[in-house]
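User: What would this chain look like folded?
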Amino acid sequence: MARDTGRPLRADAQRNRDKILAAAVRVFTEEGLDAHFERIAREAGVGTGTLYRNFPTREILIEAAYRNEVARLCDAVPGLLASMPPREALRAWMGRFIDYATAKLGMADALRAVVASGADPYGHSHEMIQTAISTLMEAGIAAGALRSDIRPTDMFAVLAGIALTSAKPEHRDQAERLLDLTLDGLKPAPPQLPES
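Assistant: Here's the prediction, encoded as structure tokens.
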């Protein structure tokens, strides 16, 4: 990670850091391990010195970029639930999950290199994603918009399966159809009418 001085970053420094991380995801997704720091800095609109000050090695940058993607995915939940009904919030988040999975797939070689260097970019990401799914599903169940017999781990498995088969940009239409199909399968069953 970037050097931690114990102090929060100034607003402009935080903006630069965020731009670097977003650019790193794009560039590593496109170029893998061959990505050049100069291109990442250029796409972020910062100097290479700023990039190196924040992320002195390729491994630190890759790990930070990946962790930032996970945080962005999970941190979106409260805002989605505050701005739309729970079922719509879940569907919007599912689309974001595919965006995250697409970036992760594109960064696969870079992430493997980080793991090979002894770091663990995936630490806590599974738990964070499970918590996000649980929060969304609990809100949907409480609103009567989702079935109560589906576990968050089941939902994660479904999303991971869709991501594995459809996370490439050229398969995005298929991913969207599969997400809609999944959401349809989460509708609560209609109440049973009493037999006459």
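Residues 58 and 94 are 30 Å apart (CA to CA). If you want, I can go into more detail on any region.
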